[in-house]
Amino acid sequence: MNDMEQLRQSLLKIDDLLASCMRCGNCQAVCPVFSQTCREADVARGKIVLLQNLAYELIKDPKAVEERLTRCLLCGACEHNCSTGVKTLEIFVEGRIALTQYLKLSPIKKFIFQSLLTHPKLFKNAIRTGSLFQGLILRRQKNKQNTATAPLLKPFLGARHIPTLPKKQLSEKYGVLVGDKSKKYNVIFYPGCMSDKVYTQIGDAVLSLLFHYDVGVIMPDDFSCCGLPALASGDKNGFDALVKNNIGVFERIGLDHGVDYIVSACPSCTETLHKWWLQLSGNYSLKERDVLQKISAKAIDMHDFLYNVLKIDTSKTTPKENAAVITYHESCHLKKSLGISKEVRELLKLNENYVLKEMAEADKCCGCGGSFTLTQPELSLKIGTRKWKNIVDSGAEEVVTACPACMMQIADMLGRNQTDIKVRHSLEILAETLKAGK
Fold first, then answer.
1. pLDDT at residue 161, rounded to an integer
2. Which secondary structure element, helix H or strand E, spans residue 355, and what is its range?
3. DSSP designation for 33
4. Helix 236-253 vs helix 88-103: crossing angle, to nearest 10
5. What's the pTM?
6. What is the dihedral of CA 32, 362, 304, 435, to 10 degrees?
């Protein structure tokens, strides 16, 4: 499909989706961007007004359209709280696709999404090389977040604190896992880029838990990125290439027999596998769409799998008297898109060494939004600072979240403010109980 035809189809989709918006303004109360700017153009209702005349606005001032559409975290708060069920996320994604078809993708993004990420071996080698030479660029910080700054990259990253790369990627540590059909459950573990290449301790926790609960694990070493970063940038071509790469991997594994679920510890990945792959596959072959139907039906968050499928009993554990205080930040994609909230809190109870103390606005976006931190750094910092303050005010010794991207953003906020609080994934807390023989 050529670019103009893709643009035409995106505009038609947007027109169909806009009809249900009543312009009630309820989205104002929950939008993290609007809470900072108080600009009507920054809230869902304002963007919908823009998208109603998108074809005209693109011709009139495409850069202004780009500025307004990128001032959105795609957190889903507006859709989650919409009384009329407006599919705002789908509207904004289609808007970005149309915008990118009109303005074209930058050469850097095109290389990342369509060349680097679509070649898993190349991506692995790039990360491996980066881990070897990161000491030349990164300045490690002495903090509990284990972050680093990059003075040489300040024009691009500013004062941002970023995670350091591990010596070995998850797929290098464990190799290919093929499952065990004698087990009650066999699952495919889709680690995503973050758990495989950055926060490998999350992948360690997932595998430890699955092995402990006698679940057969299938984990190939050639999954591609789920494609959400490309999609958030409006790169439908890059997204399609990544999805089709992954379809090939799933076809090789086989989904009809011996695979009960596809689990992930990244809510963004889970949402993408469950929703976006199938929803945006209108131009795919019937065979590809059949595979995506099966993937969508089997994709599940790891917390959901542990609590609702394995039905782990959380009622028999109480915190120790000297239990450390932790607080929990809810991932937008986990709660608002996948509907998983109480499950995480219940599972955290299994570790008697911690007691949960709720922070204010626990389900308020942390300001990450993937590339939002780069395209809208000032807004991201303001939203993140609000989250940082709520964490500190909770009095917790550690902050826990169920999303690797949220971990990165929160670690950045804590690092910048020299706050002595550790950031961990909720599954790391749960996996600790296995060391105690529980």
1. 95
2. strand 354-356
3. T
4. 120
5. 0.93
6. 130
